[in-house]
Amino acid sequence: MTDADLSPTPSRKRIEQRRWTVLFPVVGLIALAAAGLVLFALGSTSIGLEPILVGAAAALIPVAFVVSAFLWIDRWEPEPAKLLLFAFFWGACGATISSLVFNQTSRVVGDILTHGGGGDFTLLVGAPVVEEAAKAAFLIAVYLRRRHEFDGVVDGMVYAGITAAGFAFTENIWYFGRIFAQQGFGDLEGGVVALFLLRGVLSPFAHPLFTSMTGIGVGIAASSSRAVTRVVAPIAGYLAAVGLHAGWNAMTKVETGSAFINLYFLVMVPLFAGAVGIVVWQRRREQRIVAGQLAAMAQNRWIANSEVALLASLNGRRNWLRAVKRKSGDSAARSVRNYQIAVTELAFLRHRIEQGTAGQSAEQRHGVLLDTLHAARTAARG
Predict the structure, then answer these.
(1) pLDDT in tens, 334-344
(2) N or C end of the chain: which has fewer CB within 10 A?
């Protein structure tokens, strides 16, 4: 028997790869569902079912706003819906329950190191380190397993933001539910109303802002051809996330509301404005990348010359979709939308190939995306 007889055939390899491709998400969803049930059981047992339901209702408003904002950011090349859903559930269940376990350990360690100050130690050190690591785990997993999903900093921020939104959703349920059990709905001075003003109005983007630092680091790593950058950038991003998280927790320890508001506008508002500036800058960069690839794609007859101007901007794409929808209906508009996405994905891949950051399977993926583009174009024309 030769070595060739012992090695898997190509078809057998494909079957094994398909099996793991299906198995990992299924196992992951089962694990996240189990974690969610454990969290629900812990919450309903400790503070009651009614407070948990009130907390969930209050938490839905800020999380819907935050998720919508990140989906709006992700318009050039929308990430796979299933992967974004997985990111949210990891943040809401997996990262939350992991943080719950390790934060308890952190509190014990803090009591030992500070002679009874475990609560402050967890707030200022343990929670930022543990929670940002738990949220970052999903980003690192996607980076290692599906690096082609990262086209740059925006993608990193989107995955980070959706993961953190899930985490904040579960955390808000607990905070709102606990305050409802203690003080009821209350008013601007206390209770659910006052807490909603703090967590739902003033700081719905707090967790996403922290974790976006890790996302920026991972996005930089995915866009770099330097081995050092691919290691250092995610670590630097994570440390920045921990620092911001610790700083925010320290702000919540101030004694007066006016002092907190002053710190909020002096620190958090400029940081948030800076993050928005990064998004705008990177979105323009993505537009330049796509526009720069369209001429060659038209020359190769993959797209029509008349489509170059329409595909080069979000306004052009929106106007195209509206015209198709008015003339031919929703189904035709979805086909054109799929075609636009296929063009964008191929443009990003060709840019990464030119930059030397596309990876070893770039040519194979180029062929797959080109086939996808042709199929989408046929469907859009039909």
Answers:
(1) 999 999 999 99
(2) N
3-state secondary structure 22-45: HHHHHHHHHHHHHHHHHHHHHHHH
Q: Assign 55 to helix, strand or coil.
A: helix
Give the residue from 170, 95, 202 showing the smallest Cα distance to 139. 95
Per residue in 216-225, pLDDT (tens digit) is 999 999 888 8
pTM comes to 0.84
Give the separation between CA 137 and CA 131, rounded to whole angstroms.
10
- CA pair distance 230, 242, nearest whole angstrom: 19
Q: Which residues pair with 187 in a beta bridge?
A: 190
What integer is the mean pLDDT of 146-156?
Answer: 87
Within 10 A of 143 (CB to CB), how many other CB atoms are there? 21
* pLDDT tens-digit readout, 86-118: 899 899 888 988 888 887 788 887 778 777 777
Looking at residue 16, what is its pLDDT? Answer: 46
Q: Which amino acid is at 187?
A: D
Coil, strand or helix: which one is 190?
A: strand
Q: Rounded CA gap, 199 and 208, in Å?
A: 13
For the chain, helix, strand, coil in percent to 5 are 85, 0, 15
